[in-house]
Amino acid sequence: MAIFVNHQTRVIVQGITGQEGQFHTRQCIAYGTNVVGGVTPGKGGQKMDDVPVFDSVAEARQAVNADTSLIFVPPPFAADAICEAIDAGIGLIVCITEGIPVMDMLTVKNYLAGKPTRLIGPNCPGIITPGACKIGIMPGVIHRAGGPFGVVSRSGTLTYEVVHQLTGQQLGQTTCVGIGGDPVNGTGFIDCLQAFEADPETKAVVMVGEIGGSTEEEASAWVAAHMSKPVIGFIAGLTAPPGRRMGHAGAIVSGGSGTAEAKIEAMEAAGITVCRDLGTLGSLCADVYAKHS
Amino acid sequence: MKIHEYQAKELFRNHGVVVPDGMVCDSPDGVTAAVASLGLPVAVKAQVHAGGRGKGGGVRLAKTETEARAAAQAIIGMELVTQQTGSTGKRVHKVLVERGVTIKQELYLSLIVNRDDATITIIASPDGGMDIEEVAARTPERIVKVGINPLIGIKGYHAKQVASALGLTGTIAKQLGALLGNLYRLFVGCDCSLVEINPLIITGDDQLLALDAKMDIDSNSLFRHPEIAAMRDPLEEDPQELEAAQFDLNYIKLDGSIGNMVNGAGLAMATMDLIKQAGAEPANFLDVGGGATAEKVENGFRIILSDPHVKGILINIFGGILRCDVLAQGVVQAAGAVGLNVPVVVRMEGTNVEEGRRILAQSGLDLINAVDLSDAAGKVAAIAGR
C-alpha cells in the first residue's frame, strides 16, 4: 500500500519534448514508473524514446488510458496545462513548474474545487512511492521501499535530506509527497496526513514545513483531532527575516504571521514531535517509531 | 516586487482610481516647478520602499513655496529611518509633491491575495491612517474582510458589504463601488499581491481619494508586464542582491558572519537555522538552485565574500540530479578563481558523494570536510568562536 500512486499508475508527461521533460521522463522510466505517453502541442505522432507523443491531454488519455499527468511546462503556460489536464479528466496532476504567477494559481485552485482531480504542486519535486513509482524530479536512489514512514513536505532538497536520514536509519518510506513551495497550491498537508492515516502500511509521518501561510497550523489542529499515528515535524526558517521572500514564493513572514515559532508551537500543542536540529531528524524518527511499535 | 508610491499612483490613474494631482521631483528646483503647476498648499513625500514615512520625517506639508523647497531640501538625500527600514535607514532620492487636500474622514482599504482560501480579499476599516496590524490586534471588529472568487470577479454585493462596514451611504457609497471595481481590475490586471490605500480619504467636498498608494507585484508575473518590470528601482535594492539576481542566484543579505551556499530554498533556510543553533549567525540566504554549475558556485562565492563581515562559509549541497562530483569540481574551480581567504566547511551528500569528497580532499584547498549536518554545525561553531 501507499498513497496516491503505485506501480499501476499510468503517467503521461506534459512538456515531454522539452529539455527538462525529456531528462526527467527518462529518469522516471529508469526508476520503473509506467510512463505511457507524453503531450507536446504540435508534436503529436512523434516519439520521445519509445514514448508516444500526443497533441493534447485528451488525446493522450484516450489513446493510452492515462490516469496521471506530470507537468514540465514553462510558467507562462503551466496553468493552461493544468486546466487542460483537469478538463481531460486526469485523476492526478503533478506540476513541477516553478514560477507560475499566483493569479494563475488562484484561478486554477478555484476551477479545481469540486472536481475529482487531485493536483500536487506546483513548484514541487513531485511524488514517489519507493520501489514502485517516481513521478517527479527527486533522486530515486536515496529512498527505501516498504515504509513505515510517510513524508509530506513543502520543500525539495530539504525533503531529500529528510528521506536520506530516514533511509540511513533503515527506515523506509511508503510515499513521499512534495506539496510545493508556492502560496497557492493543490494538495495540502491535511490531504496527505488524512491519506497516511488511512494507509495501513504507513506507521508514522514526517511533516516538513517552512515559514509563510498557516497550513502547518491548520494541519496541526487536524493531527490533534484525527491522527492516531505519530507525527514528527520540522519547520525551516527560524532565522528568516520578516518581509523577505526566502526563495519559495510562499516562504515569507508577513505582518507577524507565518513565523516558524508559531508553527512549532502549534505542532507541539498538537502532540507532534518537533525536531529542532535537522542533523538529528533521522535518529529522532527512529526513537519515536521505536516507542510506538 | 515593490514599486514607489508615485508609480503606484500612475497605475491607479490609468485604472480610474482617483488620486491627488502630483509630480515627482529629484531636486528643490523641481519642487518649485511642481508648486507653480499644482498650486499651494502641497505635501512633499519621500519616495522609498518603506511604510511609516510620516513618523520618520519623510512627509511634510508646505503652505508656501519656500516651505516646499525647504521640505525637499531636507528630505532628498536624507537617510529615512522608519520601523520598516532598520536602523541605518534608506536614502531618499525622489519626492512626490502633491496638491494639498482637505480631509473629512480617513479610511483603510486594501486588496490581497489570500492564500488560505484562494480568494482576492478586500480588507477595509473605518480607522484609516493607522497601522492596520495594530487595528487588527486591538479592535478586530473594526476590520471587514470580503473574499472574492477570481472566477466570478467583483460584484455589486461585495462593494455593498464593504460600504456598509465603513458606514458609507449615498453618493460616497456609489463612489466606493466604482473605486473597488477599478481597484480590483488593477489588482488582477497588474498581478498584484498587495494593493493598499492608507488612508483612503473623503475630501471636504465629499470625494473619495486615494491619498496614499502601496503596491506589491508578483515577481513571477513580470514576464507579462514589461512596463511594471521597468519600474524596478535599483537604488532601493541591496547591490549584492542585485548582482546575485543577474546570475540567477537567490541571495538575501543578513547581518551575521557565517556565509552559506545551499541548493534549494527549504534546505537553505534550514541551514541558516543550523548555523544559528551552532551559536553563530548566518550572513546570508543563498539558494544556488537545483542545477548549480561551477559558474554559479563561483559567483556565489564572490558575492558571499564581498561581504566584509563573513568569517567563514558553509556549503551544504544535497546532490540529487546534480551529482556531487560535478559540484566538487565546481567548488575547486571556483575556490581557485576567487581566492578563498576564509575557512570553508563543505557538507555534501547524495549522488556520487564519495567521488566528490575525494576531489575535494585532493584539491589541496583548505576545505573542511563535514560528514553530516551535525558535524557541519560543530565545525561552523568552531569557526565562529575563533
From TrEMBL, chain A:
The active site is at H248 (tele-phosphohistidine intermediate). Its EC number is 6.2.1.5. Keywords: Ligase, Nucleotide-binding, Tricarboxylic acid cycle. Pathway: Carbohydrate metabolism; tricarboxylic acid cycle; succinate from succinyl-CoA (ligase route): step 1/1. It comes from the Bacteria. Residues 4-100 form the CoA-binding domain. One of its GO terms (biological process) is tricarboxylic acid cycle. Substrate binds at Y160. CoA binds at T17, G18, Q19, E20, K43, I96, T97, E98. GO terms for molecular function: nucleotide binding; succinate-CoA ligase (ADP-forming) activity; succinate-CoA ligase (GDP-forming) activity. It catalyses: GTP + succinate + CoA = succinyl-CoA + GDP + phosphate; succinate + ATP + CoA = succinyl-CoA + ADP + phosphate. The keyword tRNA-binding does not apply. NCBIfam families: PRK05678.1, sucCoAalpha. Belongs to the succinate/malate CoA ligase alpha subunit family. HAMAP family: Succ_CoA_alpha. Heterotetramer of two alpha and two beta subunits. Succinyl-CoA synthetase functions in the citric acid cycle (TCA), coupling the hydrolysis of succinyl-CoA to the synthesis of either ATP or GTP and thus represents the only step of substrate-level phosphorylation in the TCA. The alpha subunit of the enzyme binds the substrates coenzyme A and phosphate, while succinate binding and nucleotide specificity is provided by the beta subunit. This is Succinate--CoA ligase [ADP-forming] subunit alpha. It comes from Desulfofustis glycolicus DSM 9705.
TrEMBL record, chain B:
Residues 9-228 form the ATP-grasp domain. Pfam families: ATP-grasp_2, Ligase_CoA. The keyword Glycosyltransferase does not apply. GO terms for molecular function: ATP binding; magnesium ion binding; succinate-CoA ligase (ADP-forming) activity; succinate-CoA ligase (GDP-forming) activity. Keywords: ATP-binding, Ligase, Magnesium, Metal-binding, Nucleotide-binding, Tricarboxylic acid cycle. It is an enzyme of class 6 (ligase). One of its GO terms (biological process) is tricarboxylic acid cycle. It catalyses: GTP + succinate + CoA = succinyl-CoA + GDP + phosphate; succinate + ATP + CoA = succinyl-CoA + ADP + phosphate. Mg(2+) binds at N198, D212. Binds 1 Mg(2+) ion per subunit. Its cofactor is Mg(2+). Pathway: Carbohydrate metabolism; tricarboxylic acid cycle; succinate from succinyl-CoA (ligase route): step 1/1. One of its GO terms (cellular component) is cytosol. It comes from the Bacteria. Belongs to the succinate/malate CoA ligase beta subunit family. HAMAP family: Succ_CoA_beta (MF_00558). This is Succinate--CoA ligase [ADP-forming] subunit beta. The gene is sucC.
